[in-house]
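Researcher: Please translate sequence to structure tokens.
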Amino acid sequence: KASNFDDVTKGLLTTATSIYRCLVVTRAPFPETLIIETKLAKDAWHEASNMAEHTIQLTPSLIKMMTRRTSHVRGELKTKMCILTASFFGFHASRSILAIKQNRDLAESLEEGSRFVFKDWEMKCGIYKTRLIQSVINDMWFANRSDEGIVYAKYFDPLPVQTIALILTAIECCIDEWMTGVKEDIKFSLVAYSPVSSYLRVLYIACVKCSDNTTTLLIRQ
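Model: Translation complete:
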């Protein structure tokens, strides 16, 4: 527990944990090994130590307290995104037969050809320009002066491809929750969504190198 440490260590841990959260979403949103998580924790601790001008040994227990936040930060993003997604696309929390059918049809349409990545998803134009990306960026990292995107701006300027892929994956997860027509909670887990994130990241990189006419051919069928 953090309360087991002295005030200096607790302060350093708080800063390092915030930095760790930034490193997760900008470098490795779905770290597949403990080695990767540990490396992020060490980098965060080093950065926090430099900022505080303190040298405190990083112990396994401190690393564990930081790495526990990996799934937490993904879950926080997904929670914010689900609220935005439902409102943005027009999903309705109703048990009526009509609403269930409309929700199911909408979810299927959005995921067909990854339409949800487009600014105009019905016409499939404006690839990767959906306003949902900017909306969740604002809510998650730039809502107020104390948010991580403001305090640790260097990690988000420019916004890494890994972060964009994570956001797009979160949108897909939120749409998945409506696939039956009635919202069901789906865990934003490494096992289920790391492959999706990897796919979307590769796709995004390919798309930024091409024109809109070319990239529409790359979208998942």
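Researcher: Any highlights?
Model: Confidence is low (pLDDT under 50) at residues 211-221.
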